[in-house]
Structures are given as C-alpha cells and as structure tokens.
Amino acid sequence: MMGNHHVRFRGRGRGSSLWEPSPLPDGVEDFEEITIRHSKYAASRFAHEAAPALTRFANSSPAPFINGIKAARAQIVARTDEDRTDFLRKRGFGKAETAKIIEAVLVEEGRAPTSVFDFVQGITAVARDKPHQDARLDLEARAKKLLDRAA
Questions:
Q1: Which of 29, 32, 82, 150 has the most CB within a 10 Å radius?
Q2: How many CA atoms lie within 13 A of 151 on its CB side?
Q3: What is the 3-state secondary structure (H, E, C) of the chain?
Q4: Residues contacting 39, CB < 8 A, separation 6+
Q5: What's the whole-model pTM score?
Q6: Which of 18-27, 52-61, 87-96, 121-130 has the least mean pLDDT?
Q7: DSSP β-bridge partners for residue 7
Q8: pLDDT, tens digit, for every residue of 38-85?
C-alpha cells in the first residue's frame, strides 16, 4: 500500500523545542490519511488524491498554535518556590516528579518556572529522560492538557 499521512503536530517536543513529531494520536492536530493500494495507476491516483490535502496543509495557518504558546507564556502561575510546588502538586504530580520538573526548567532555561509554558517545557524535558514510551507519552499528555487549558 502507498499512503500519505499529513499531520500538524502540536505541543510536543524536547525541552524548548515544541516542533518534534510524536506518535499518534497524542499531540496531533488535524489528521488526514490517504491510503491507496499499489496498482498500475496507484501513483497517478495518489497524486490526484493527495494534492488537495497537501494544498490544505500548505495553506493552513499556524495562528492557533502560536496563540496557544503566547497565552501559555503570558499566564504566570508561580512566583515563589512554594507556588511552583503547589501548581504541579495540585495537578497530580508527585513530590519527586515536581522537583525534577522544576530542576529541568532551571537547567534548561536558566531560571525558575513561572508561566504555564515554563512548566510544560519542564514536563517535556523530564519526559525525554523516561526510558519507556508509555511513561513519556503519559507525561507529555499531561503537559498538553496544561497547554490546552492556557489557550
């Protein structure tokens, strides 16, 4: 089978880079799939069916994604160490996880987290170090929820 997957990823990444692709369905915004069986006319059929999807993708706006990031950066949720700990603990993060997230932001950003965006960055940084994909995806899904609520 020949196939084309057009995907625009949202809110997934490594530390300060939110553009890294992730497995489906987490982190995916607008998913469109075109599948064509390999046959004599498969290539021309693929080109004919894929062209509109690729055109829509090329003409789509990144504005909702960019606006979400701006909103998350603007939403200041913690000014003190106690605020930082409380923010994460109230969202279901354990004591050890909370410390790792805050430390990750300190190391990667050079300052303590204050905004929702900072915490999302810290969570994805901690997720990067998880050896098992399920654990990484769980943490990144939690980061996505924070990002989506800020938007």
A1: 150
A2: 16
A3: CEEEEEEEECCECECCECECCCCCCCCEEEEEEEEECCCCCHHHHHHHHHHHHHHHHHHCCCHHHHHHHHHHHHCECCCCHHHHHHHHHCCCCCHHHHHHHHHHHHHHHCCCCCEHHHHHHHHHHHHHCCCCHHHHHHHHHHHHHHHHHHC
A4: none
A5: 0.67
A6: 18-27
A7: 31
A8: 778 778 887 887 888 888 888 888 888 899 899 999 999 999 999 999
Residue 129 token pair? 């170090």
Tokens encoding 41: 């006319």
Amino acid (one-letter) located at 151: A
> How many CB atoms are located within 10 Å of the residue 150 CB?
20
Q: Output the six-digit token pair for 108.
A: 């990667």
- Could you report the per-residue pLDDT of 5-42, keeping only the tens digit for each? 444 444 444 443 444 444 444 445 555 666 667 778 77
Q: Which two tokens stand for residue 17?
A: 């880079």
How far is residue 147's CA from residue 99's CA, in Å, rounded to a whole number?
20
